[in-house]
Amino acid sequence: GRGGAGFPTGKKWATVAANAASSDLAPTVVVNAAEGEPGTFGDRTLIRRNPYRVLEGALIAAHAIGARAIAVVTKEQYAAELELLTDAAQELVATGVTGDVEIDVVGGAGHYLLGEETGLLEAAAGRLPFPRVAPPYRHGTVEVGDPSGGASRLELAGDGGTAPPTLVNNAETFAHVPQIVQHGPDWFRQHGTADSPGTSLFTISGDTRRGGVAEFALGTPVRQIIEELGGGITDAEVAFVMSGVGSGVLLPHQLDLPATYEDLSAAGSGLGTGGFMVFSTDTDPIAVAHGVSRFLSIESCGQCSPCKEGGLEVAAALDVLRDGQADDDVLERLVPLVHTLSDEARCDLGPQHERIVSSFLEQFPDATRAHVVDHASTEPVLVAPIVDIDDEGRVTLDEDHRTKQPDWEHGDDWNGQTPADRHDVAVTIQ
Question: Is 256 inside a domain boundary?
Fold first, then answer.
């Protein structure tokens, strides 16, 4: 799949189909079109150019697993994509090609966790995207049991249960399906590698001459993607590259690695959703680390205290460090605190926060010491989702994220609550 983890799509479909056989209700297909990973703009580009391919792939999946409903979930502020998907779905229904499969296009609250699979299912049910304990293939969009809004109270579904499983794939994954069905798997595997077959959409942003989205064969060197799509770096040298905000940074000597799940994972990084943010030697890595940490701590829902409270502490410490106000005690507290962020995590936000901040601290010890010893101070760096990439390659980030508070409200002050507190969601880890 192309959702970030690289999980085999066929295996996922087979698992859902097998679990569906023991359920009293038909499974559901959910299209994750809620792209929000910083540095990534592939799914929205795809939907803007051809929403029909995404929906056709979802219809094929529905046929394969016996689903009778498709839910396409995107962010409510993505007005253009919502309209395109809605119009395309209505057109397909009108032509009769959907058969007895219903298609519903849903706009969910525009938070980062809307892209998390179980948070996406909460949004499809009209709630905020708080991650569940149960994965989609065990409990899907139809709620069975306690009807409360608390994610941790939902019934688990398995063999002999009554809750229907759900198939969740992202928009790009579904867009590949029609051509694979038409041309066959061998055609698809002509590109890519044995473990990462086919092509994928890549996004370039940051300190490159231009930003953009384009399709490359998996296995293409990272440096080649940066040069061809981004036009190279602007008036400096590459210092590091981030592949989203969920894995370790890539250093200059690693840029000739093939862009595959296996190669980048082995290097301590990851392919993610193919969004490479390129930073030059003119950019302070600690300022970027703070920007990442702030983004992730703000977007944490608060169901897991180490992720939310610990994440906010990490972001605050990195901010003090960035501003040149930190001493050795701050560093001594920071490192062990970072390693608690994944404790009791019900989703990957805490673990990814731990991975990427640890990577910055390990890879840039000199920059870290400069902030402590020399009290070097640098300007904050905004790390936020891409709002748009225009025809000239100019990238616009979500500037509104600067005022987003830890309770997911916007303003100058935070009331001390988390999103889970505000909406009375159970926080017990099961």
Answer: yes
